[in-house]
Structures are given as structure tokens and as C-alpha cells.
Design goal:
7 strands; alpha/beta; Rossmann fold
């Protein structure tokens, strides 16, 4: 079943996701850090650290949003990053950050579709994405296209929400995720549907071993999964086979 943000709308998931992020862009960063108690910042650092052995990498940040992961990559790896996203309003926030931090020479962002990336084959040393693949309209197409723009032997790091498995944390987390988070997120962002969609999309996402299988279907080779904070999120580390 395809989960969409706005159930009363006839638009495609891709169109709805773009509209949703345009709506919540002004409050997105605050809500991200507030609703996760700042833990999302730690997850991003751990994700980027997996790429520390690649010398002078050129990195593509898919679904870059407001640019937090791209900025973290530049900070930790001293590298150039290209970010793409389908939401123009999120990219405006990212641009403001890059100008304010004087990073426009090393990080660039542009509008782009994750399932039809505007780059040549074998361009990037690494592809990164945080909390984005869950929003793809066609997961296989998105993963395959990210693999296409990776150089042979290049690495992919996917940070995505997952489902905790153990009692009692699982039950406590699901109560927060299904009831408290949508209420708070909707109240602050003025878009309740966006924060109802968040837990629905997570619960319907093929996480864990199932996502590893999706990576294999897309022509990538899983290396390792790293569960974060008792399974709230997972970092998937994979590579494009050398030719």
C-alpha cells in the first residue's frame, strides 16, 4: 500500500510529498530537533563517519531538505557536496543556511527528482540520504538511480526511521509516535496531515533485512546495518560493486 500525506487529495505521492515539505519547511528544522530531543544530530554524525576513509570524496545528498546532512558531511570530511530535493521551499531554507555559514563554495543545492537524478553515470564517490527514501514514490527506481550515479566501489549511506522491536520500549515509543508526535507536530507546523503521515510511512516502510533486499534488487551490495537508539532509526551502509 502506498502511503500518501493527504488522503483526500488525488495527487501522486511525489506531488503530495513535495507539497507537504513546502508547507512545513519554515518549522522543519525546529520540529526535527525538538521531536527527536536532538538525537537526530547524533545519528547524522554516525552516518557520515562511515565515509571517513574515502579521500576527498565528492558526495551527493539525496532529499537534502534543509541541508543538515550535507553540512555535516562537509564539516566532518572536508569535502564537496551536491544536494538535491523536490521541495523548493526546503531548498530555500538550505540556501539561507549555506550563505549564512559561508559554505556556498563547497556545498550546492538544486531541485531534483530522486528517481531521475540530473547527473551522469559514475559521478559520485558516495551518496547519502537521511529520512528520504521512505518518501520515494518508487523505492526501487530511486535506489537504482542513486546507484547509477555512484562510481564503481562507491559507498551509499541511508539513514531512515525503523521500528523498535523490544518490550517495553516498543510500546512506549509507538504511543509517542502515533499519538503525541502527530499532535505536537501538527500544532506547531499547522499541517497535521504531515505529522500523521510520518508514523504511517515509517510503519509501512520495509526496514531491516527487507530494506537490505531492496538494496540488492537495486544492484547494490549491503555491507552492514547499524540500529540507532534501540531501533528508532537504522543506518544502512552499502556499496556499488566494482566493475
Amino acid at each position: 500500500m502506498t502511503v500518501k500525506p493527504y488522503k483526500s487529495s488525488e495527487g501522486s505521492k511525489k506531488t503530495q510529498v513535495a507539497g507537504m515539505f513546502n508547507n512545513i519547511a519554515p518549522k522543519y528544522d525546529f520540529l526535527n530537533h525538538f521531536l527527536s530531543l536532538g538525537i537526530d544530530k547524533i545519528w547524522r554524525k554516525r552516518a557520515i563517519n562511515l565515509l571517513k576513509d574515502i579521500p576527498n570524496p565528492l558526495i551527493l545528498d539525496v532529499a537534502t531538505g534543509t541541508g543538515d546532512l550535507a553540512i555535516e558531511a562537509n564539516k566532518r570530511l572536508n569535502c564537496k557536496v551536491v544536494g538535491v530535493d523536490i521541495s523548493t521551499e526546503m531548498l530555500k531554507v538550505a540556501d539561507e543556511k549555506l550563505v549564512k555559514r559561508e559554505l556556498t563554495e563547497v556545498i550546492s543545492v538544486q531541485e531534483g527528482d530522486s528517481e531521475n537524478l540530473p547527473f551522469e553515470n559514475d559521478t559520485f564517490d558516495a551518496v547519502i540520504v537521511a529520512f528520504g527514501v521512505r518518501n520515494f514514490e518508487n523505492l526501487n527506481k530511486g535506489l537504482t538511480d542513486m546507484g547509477r550515479v555512484l562510481k564503481p566501489g562507491g559507498k551509499m549511506v541511508v539513514l531512515e526511521f525503523s521500528k523498535p522491536a523490544y518490550f517495553p520500549f516498543k510500546q512506549l515509543y509507538l504511543f509517542y509516535f502515533l499519538y503525541i508526535l502527530p499532535w505536537l507536530g501538527g500544532l506547531i507546523s499547522k499541517d497535521k496531515a504531515a505529522y500523521t503521515y510520518l508514523p504511517e510511512s515509517v510503519l509501512n516502510f520495509p526496514d531491516g533485512k527487507t530494506f537490505d533486499s531492496e538494496l540488492v534488487k537495486a544492484g547494490l551490495s549491503p555491507i552492514k546495518r547499524y540500529k540507532q537508539t534501540m531501533g528508532i532509526a537504522t543506518i544502512y551502509f552499502s556499496e556499488k560493486p566494482k566493475q
